[in-house]
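Holo prediction. Input below; ligand is nickel (II) ion.
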Amino acid sequence: MAILPITTYPDSLLSKKTERVKNPKDPVIQELILDMFETMEKNNGVGLAAPQVGKSLRLCVIKLDGKSYVLINPVFKSKSWKKIIGEEGCLSLPGQYMQVKRSQKVKVRALDRKGREIIVQAQNLLARIFQHEIDHLNGTLIIEKIVKEKKSKK
Ligand code: NI
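Structure of the complex:
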């Protein structure tokens, strides 16, 4: 395993749409998954997407409350209308924290690390992390999603 260097804004890789993983069982992908977990944990992150370690692939890893998730080629099956504003950070934007509006609940279809199809439901913080990481796979960063403060009238 290895700790990988983190790609930071404004690297153009972070704004590129990623490519589907063709074979999750490929040893190169399996090693990347392990390296991404190690890199995320070393940096005290709760989620990490492949473009953040220089790979333009539809793959992200998440770890929250001791539970690990590997999402390969994820797609949203549903997103709740109800949205919540919360603070987010990003390892690619060190030291920056922003208010972002996200669906409270999501359902995601993906392949797990063994290439099996899974459907995962998440809410609140886990749903927020899923949305943040899948945004990365579409080349979207939180700086594009900041909740604008209402301007006060003078
Ligand atoms: Ni991020």
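Residues 90-92, 132, 136 surround nickel (II) ion (CB under 6 Å). That is the main takeaway for now.
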